[in-house]
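Incident log, support desk, overnight shift.

02:14 A customer reports that sequence design results differ from what the structure should imply. Their input is reproduced verbatim below. On-call engineer (initials T.W.) acknowledged and began investigating.
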């Protein structure tokens, strides 16, 4: 898949394609050359998903309302497991 077309995918579409590739590779039915190509595509899709997630995370702000009904925004931090 060309980089231009890859960049046009939504997060959900990229994730669905990535999941399909992983299932196919896990099945063991893929020829070696096809598996290598699928793996390379999967890595590009993984990077795209990570980039889109990071971009979304940067756009999210946490809004807090204090006892005086004042609204304060701060960076939203995703808790690590």
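02:41 Re-run completed on a clean worker. Output:
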């Amino acid at each position: 898949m060309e980089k231009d077309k890859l960049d046009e995918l939504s997060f959900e579409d990229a994730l669905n394609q990535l999941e399909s590739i992983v299932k196919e590779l896990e099945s063991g039915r893929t020829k070696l050359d096809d598996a290598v190509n699928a793996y390379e595509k999967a890595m590009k899709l993984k990077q795209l998903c990570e980039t889109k997630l990071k971009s979304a995370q940067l756009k999210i702000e946490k809004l807090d309302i204090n006892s005086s009904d004042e609204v304060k925004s701060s960076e939203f931090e995703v808790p690590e497991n």
